[in-house]
Amino acid sequence: MTKYELTLTNEPVGQSYRILLEHCFRVGSTFGVVVRDYPELSPSGNLLQKAILSAGGTSSRGSDWPGTVLLEEEATIIQIPTSEEVFQIVVEASRRLFEWVQPGLPEDPFFLKKDGAILLGTIAHERDAYLAGTLEELNYLAARLPGLFAVPPQPASE
């Protein structure tokens, strides 16, 4: 099966952000965020990190996650299985995709599918994000979110 990618050219905000999250929580099996060593998270960012971890999230140190490869440093990567509880935590944390930037929030939200394949990767501080999936999944999402994508889904580079 050919995999496709769809790059966001505009930021999902409000209702379009919620539609994107609903899709990712339905299709994905893991939600993740990253906490860099600097700058330190704000008090509200720390509360969010604790909420994710207390809901069953795990943390590990690493230098790569969907959309990013660090060359000389590591960060804390937090991952948690998708659930209604986690959906509510994420929806209440932000109303925009690119708001996930430290110190206010953990960075670079991402979603993985059951097989570990990337569903959504972001580089929030660069206002960059992409979705991966089947042509049918991405066309469906593009139709529900008009104006967020400049070009139709493209075959993913292997």
List the helices and strands and how they pair.
Layout: E1 4-7, H1 15-27, E2 30-35, H2 43-54, E3 58-62, E4 64-65, E5 68-69, E6 75-81, H3 84-93, E7 107-112, E8 118-123, E9 128-133, H4 135-144, E10 154-155
Antiparallel strand pairs: 1-9, 1-10, 2-6, 2-7, 3-6, 4-5, 7-8, 8-9
Description:
- With 158 residues, this protein is an alpha+beta fold.
- The chain has one domain.
- Helices cover 28% and strands 29% of the residues.
- The chain contains 4 helices and 10 strands, in the order βαβαββββαβββαβ.
- The strands form 2 sheets. The chain has an 8-stranded antiparallel β-sheet. A two-stranded antiparallel ribbon has the order 4-5.
- A hairpin with a 4-residue loop joins strand 8 (118-123) and strand 9.
- The longest helix is centred in the first third of the chain and has 13 residues, at 15-27.
- The radius of gyration is 15 Å and the shape is globular.
- The model has no long low-confidence stretch (mean pLDDT 94).
Brief overview:
With 158 residues, the protein is of the alpha+beta class. It has four helices and ten strands.
